[in-house]
Structure prediction request, 90 residues.
Amino acid sequence: MPARKNRKRDQDLVGPALLKETCRRLRAARSYWKAHRNKACRRERERALELYDRLSPEERGRVPQALRVWLRYRSEKYFGPHRTLPGRRT
Prediction:
């Protein structure tokens, strides 16, 4: 059995740790998107959005602008509610 990683759960993060994890997940989602790994990108983007929604307005301002722009415009275009869900053919 592999060793267990000793890391905090996303629910336990607050303050600078929450901001750092949010930015990390946004960068990971963006890199998956650039590599055309849509399933991994979607998963990371959803996790990043959950964390981003917990940030205060001041903390959201500290997220780098490139990540905020990608999250707001690019990811909505490709992963928004108007898109067909994965695995569904119509």
